[in-house]
Amino acid sequence: MSTAADVGPGTTIPSLELVVDPEKMKVMTALLADPNPIHFDTRALAALGMDERPVNQGPLNMGYLQTMLARWAGGRDRLLSFRVRFQGNVLAGDRVRAQGQVAEVRETERGRVATCEISLEVVGGAVALSGTADVLLEETG
Fold first, then answer.
1. Is the pLDDT of residue 2 over 60?
2. How far apart are CA 27 and CA 33, in angstroms?
3. Is 125 left (phi over 0), alpha (psi -120 to 50) or beta?
4. Which of these, 95, 102, 107, 79, lies nearest to 10 by C-alpha position?
5. Which has the higher per-residue pLDDT, 69 or 46?
6. Residue 93 is part of which domain span?
7. 40 to each of 84, 86, 87, 90, 128, how far by Cα in Å?
8. Please, what is the Cα angle at 7 between 132 and 102, to 5 degrees?
9. Mean pLDDT of 24-47
10. CATH code of the domain in which 98 resides
11. Pairing state between β 111-122 and 127-139
């Protein structure tokens, strides 16, 4: 990470790129006890006229963005707020890229905070999530 003093509007957050692992998707489906068959049943997907690859869980997609921010900021405890809008599906085997840019830096009671514009896109495809996050850059005192 750049030092907190170097961060300002326009600073690019190092992206995180990965391939969505179908086995991790199965584990998440079980952990969340999510009965929606679009996350695990290829026959249900076909019956709905969807791609036959299972749809990734929303919490996993959000986690990719949070991991990108935590790596940049120095820990998950520095993520102060996180708001995203779901715009599309991520499927098993997709390559995704979590990315962001600092929109604003301000002083708060807690310290220097960056508001970041963030998105998760399917590489070669569409944006799946977009939103904003507040990240603590440097604590006061």
1. no
2. 10
3. beta
4. 102
5. 69
6. 4-139
7. 24, 20, 21, 13, 19
8. 20
9. 85
10. 3.10.129.10
11. antiparallel
Is the pLDDT at 1 greater than 70, yes or no?
Answer: no
**pLDDT, mean of residues 38-53:** 86
Instruction: Give the single-character DSSP code of 80.
Output: E
Contact 129, 65 (CB under 8 A): yes
Residues in CB range of 16: below 8 A, 6 or more apart: 64, 67, 68, 71, 97, 98, 99
| Contacts for 20 with CB less than 8 Å, ≥ 6 apart | 56, 60, 90, 91, 92, 93, 94, 95, 96
Number of domains in the chain: 1
The set of residues, in sequence order, having a beta carbon less than 8 Å from that of 54 and lying 6+ positions away, is 22, 25, 38, 39, 40, 41, 42, 45, 91, 92
Rounded distance, CA 36 to CA 58, Å?
12
Q: Which residue do the tokens 């995180």 mark?
A: 16
Q: How confident is the model at residue 3 (pLDDT cuts 50, 70, 90)?
A: low
Dump pLDDT digits (tens) for 82-112: 999 999 999 999 999 999 999 999 999 999 9
